């Protein structure tokens, strides 16, 4: 039976709320404690849980109490990766944890204008963040979760005190993480920090899709309590969904926008592609066509989520000479996919892995990562691409995704 974890975030998401929801849904706290000892940082914290009530609803609050002064104990990404890689954790836990921290480092690096490996972690590199992230991955693995989905996220508001001073909510790292996955967001009217960088990193790194839950059977629900009291229950709801179906392709609604153009400078097309992709288009392509009066032209096709129709159409009207755009709403099937990281002698490369029914069907190194290494070391791109595939075979061919 395929099992899916759905993160329902009406009041936001944080790392400790993820742990609370996992314990509430049945993951033994003792198991989390024992597995986390593999990180060899157990002297830095004390992990415990309690049952609390939020507006009459019972949930589990997990505490990560630090047992030392962490004000001068910050870690870089390589320090955290070393801790995780040298722990005897299940392979999927290691893979997920590294992915979350790397995504968090990328976001922080973009905020501060430095490479991910140069990020000097503060809150996100603290002991409680390591426990939250690795503990969440341990819990999901214990439940036998195959995939993670997540709801839209509330934006919150106001300000919050951080290592770099007082920041507006949502904090910059959270905004970058949302942007990286085009996470749907909304305001629930609560002026507080509802989504933390740790919570956003967990959701954006692990979730295959954002929005409503997939059509499956609801098996269990776990409620993870936050610390603050709001006008609604401050609870992360973890839905465990199951299906006896052997089909692991996913379906979603998409919109196809089309228009023919015969009087546009071709140099504008490259710029149009970039702007549309930045706006959230899923794909953009052109085809050479013959138009009326035998004039050569091209057919522009843009595939986008339905909620991006207005924005994409506005861009097409602004950047091209077209006077009309056709639209068609369709359903598409797509394979579950995940991003892994492989190390080569020239650096780390992301690899996109697509699978169905636990069977890997497609493995593709990320073009931009291969191109960056090829330029830096003056290597043929195809050689770097092949090196990434070989590194994947050596590192992951015997592991289950």
From TrEMBL:
<keyword id="KW-0456">Lyase</keyword>
<keyword id="KW-0533">Nickel</keyword>
<dbReference type="GO" id="GO:0016829">
    <property type="term" value="F:lyase activity"/>
</dbReference>
<dbReference type="GO" id="GO:0016151">
    <property type="term" value="F:nickel cation binding"/>
</dbReference>
<protein>
    <recommendedName>
        <fullName>Putative nickel insertion protein</fullName>
    </recommendedName>
</protein>
<dbReference type="InterPro" id="IPR002822">
    <property type="entry name" value="Ni_insertion"/>
</dbReference>
<comment type="similarity">
    <text>Belongs to the LarC family.</text>
</comment>
<dbReference type="Pfam" id="PF01969">
    <property type="entry name" value="Ni_insertion"/>
</dbReference>
